[in-house]
Amino acid sequence: MRAALFVEKNADLSLEDVSPIDPGPRDVVVKVHASGVCHSDLAVIQRMPGGNPMILGHEGCGEVAWTGSEVSRVRPGQRVIIALTPVCNQCWYCLRQETHLCELWPTVLGTKRVRRADGSTANAMSGVGSFADEMIVHEASCIPVDTDLPSDQLALIGCGFTTGFGAALNTAQVTPGATVAVIGCGGVGTSVIQGARVAGASRIIAIDPLASKREAALGFGATDTVDPTDGDPIEQVKALTGGRGADFAFEVVGAEALQVQALEMTRRGGTTTLVGVAGGAATMPLPAMRMVMEDRTVKGSYYGSARVTRDFARFIELIEAGRVDLGGMVTKHFALDQVNEAITAMRDGEVVRGVLAL
Ligand SMILES: [Zn+2]
Ligand SMILES: [Zn+2]
Fold first, then answer.
1. If you average pLDDT over residues 331-349, what whole number do you get?
2. For residue 58, how far is its CA from the centre of ligand 1 (angstroms)?
3. N-to-C CA span, the chain
4. What's the gap in Å between 100 CA and the centre of ligand 2?
5. Strands 79-82 and 203-207, how do they pair?
6. How far is the CA of 124 from the centre of ligand 2 (A)?
7. What is the Å distance from ligand 2's center to 160 Cα?
8. Cβ atoms of residues 168 and 246 within 8 Å
């Protein structure tokens, strides 16, 4: 099989022919149809030390090609989206319906999936590894879907769409009539915007320094845009929300300064939700007295607090009904061997979402 591996920090991914390590009885081999390219892939390249080769890509869908002897969740020929975190249905969190926190995750992260030509082995990012023509995954990561939607749209449900849309609907629980501010309007940010629109927000303010991203955000449901280079973005949001700030603000970049901005553009009594993943050493200073006296809530949102076995099906129904636009988020297609170009296009802000189509 062919795969794109992270080998060295800040270097291009290495495109290699690799051999699958024998899958286990609960493993599934999936022929990849499409894989989104996500900022978390870039974060691995920029932040992780080299030395532990890993197949990148964690936003994939495809068709089941083979199942181990104990697999019961899927069968060959089924279309599946591979979930960013598995759902084992047996652990403490899964039994409490908090499946995005499933305890099986470290196991799937650590499983070696392929052998390289030099004999070394590699695991798969998030237990997915979708920058490849095949994925070898635990059955707990496989969510079967029954739809005719194109694969490039389904792939986005695996990470970015669910992360953003779920943050609005599941984590923050945006209410009808609410005002919403979103910092960062890439694939995840536009998904937050769509979630806020579906939830019935009255005003959705899209904040991004790139004019192309602000323009695109209007097409996904934003009612106003703010250019943060055009004056203090906190004051600009307050000017659009009666001087108070938004009921809900989302930070979708993962930068401390922007997290503080998100807090300060949220009104008293409002909810600030952190969606972007900051570096491991980053901290966010909270004004402790005002947190109490102004009745503020700050939430972290991992994977849109999604219960994927429920949410993937309802997201697909919303897309099929035309209530959510995933096709418009797929800005450009790339071949697997063009994966480094796709990552560059994302880093440079040229795409809402680039997708590897196989
Ligand atoms: Zn992602
Ligand atoms: Zn679990």
1. 94
2. 6
3. 13
4. 8
5. unpaired
6. 19
7. 21
8. no
Ligand nearest to the Cα of 38, by number: 1
Look up tokens 């490039």; give the residue. 152
- The residue to which tokens 């779920």 are assigned: 166
Q: Is the full-model pTM beyond 0.85?
A: yes
pLDDT for 173-217, tens place per residue? Answer: 999 999 999 999 999 999 999 999 999 999 999 999 999 999 999
Q: State the ligand closest to the CA atom of 163.
A: 1
Question: Rounded to the nearest whole angstrom, what is the distance from the C-alpha of residue 34 to the centroid of ligand 1?
Answer: 14
Locate tokens 């809402």: which residue?
352
Whether the pLDDT of residue 351 is over 90: the answer is no
Tens-place pLDDT, residues 23-81: 999 999 999 999 999 999 999 999 999 889 999 999 999 999 999 999 999 999 999 99
Domains in the chain with CATH codes: 2-158+325-357 (3.90.180.10), 164-301 (3.40.50.720)
Give φ, ψ of 300 to 5 degrees.
Answer: -95, 145
For 127: left if phi > 0, alpha if psi spans -120 to 50, otherwise beta; the answer is: left
Q: Distance between CA 241 and CA 3 in Å, rounded?
A: 48
